[in-house]
Design goal:
about 110 residues; mainly alpha; two-stranded antiparallel sheet; 2 strands
């Protein structure tokens, strides 16, 4: 529980660096995934609250001719995180740079 709280605080701090404007068009799953991935990158565990968001992100997997498609998966996951306009571009880029081509979660 303590690690989960720390992860949420760290993720919030990463996003708090820039003014946050909540958009009605934001995909809440995408925003949750960005926050959880930012927390994991910062050394947190994500915790139980992040399971669904992480599943939403890592379930985006593309194949080409029967093989895992790195570029296709990265592009699809980038499109997913871009649905969260409230998160800053740097945080989304860090998440996609680290996990965008991973076939499974951390």
């Amino acid at each position: 529980m303590k690690r989960q709280t720390i992860a949420v605080i760290v993720a919030s701090a990463l996003v708090a660096g820039a003014p946050i404007e909540v958009n009605a068009s934001d995909n809440q799953s995408a925003c949750g995934a960005v926050l959880c991935l930012a927390g994991v990158i910062a050394g947190g565990s994500g915790g139980g609250d992040c399971e669904g968001y992480m599943w939403d992100y890592f379930s985006i997997v593309k194949f080409h001719n029967g093989h895992f498609d790195l570029a296709g998966t990265l592009n699809a996951r980038t499109g997913f995180t871009d649905q969260c306009q409230s998160a800053d571009a740097v945080t989304k880029k860090r998440a996609n740079d680290k996990y965008g081509t991973s076939q499974s979660g951390p």
